[in-house]
Amino acid sequence: xxxxxxxxxxxxxxxxxxxxxxxxxxxxxxxxxxxxxxxxxxxxxxxxxxxxxxxxxxxxxxxxxxxxxxxxxxxxxxxxxxxxxxxxxxxxxxxxxxxxxxxxxxxxxxxxxxxxxxxxxxxxxxxxxxxxxxxxxxxxxxxxxxxxxxxxxxxxxxxxxxxxxxxxxxxxxxxxxxxxxxxxxxxxxxxxxxxxxxxxxxxxxxxxxxxxxxxxxxxxxxxxxxxxxxxxxxxxxxxxxxxxxxxxxxxxxxxxxxxxxxxxxxxxxx
Length: 270
Hints:
The chain has one domain (2-53, 64-269). The chain has 3 helices and 12 strands; from the N terminus they run ααβββββββββββαβ. The protein is an alpha+beta fold. Strands 1, 2, 3, 4, 5, 6, 7, 8, 9, 10, 11 and 12 form a 12-stranded antiparallel β-sheet that branches.
């Protein structure tokens, strides 16, 4: 499973190198954090799995041993996320002969809160519905290739999302249980109409893939998780008859397509 994320990271890094070096280094920092996050959650657990059957004395007293026998579970979540937007350039040339390109120069962390509902389909398979609010920011910079002029716009987003995921969990060992999760995530942006020059559509749908681990504590389950989200829709609104200043057309005409992406680090309390 870890190799899947390694392949994803390598592919994305190659794309970032071609587009913008600063985005590359920013993504490197993100992936380093993700790398340490995954190792911290699972390295100790995976190292114990080969010895689970061979050494019964390594087993410990199980906290909340019957909690997974309930068909329905609920809880709440809090976390942080990083928003990105993948841009397809078209080399737009304005009336003065200047060619413009758009980029996302850096990432700013956002905040996420929500609730969790989980229904067990089998011993290892569960259906999850997770209504969530994401509060975040994307920074876009538009650059003039001829004279290095640039214009920057900050896009603030308040996403209301309802992810529907399938969770596949491994066998519990002591007070740990790793899992993988995948699904879809329809999203509604509640603040899109407040943007000005660069206007995005207010709906999108993400594909999600992630992994996490259930930690069984004496009074509740603590569940750290990391997910990668990739938007399926072109979210840029190019029909901007409301823009009368030709100088502002660079914000809509220099990009053909824009697709949203997110990395979400979540902590569930169940």
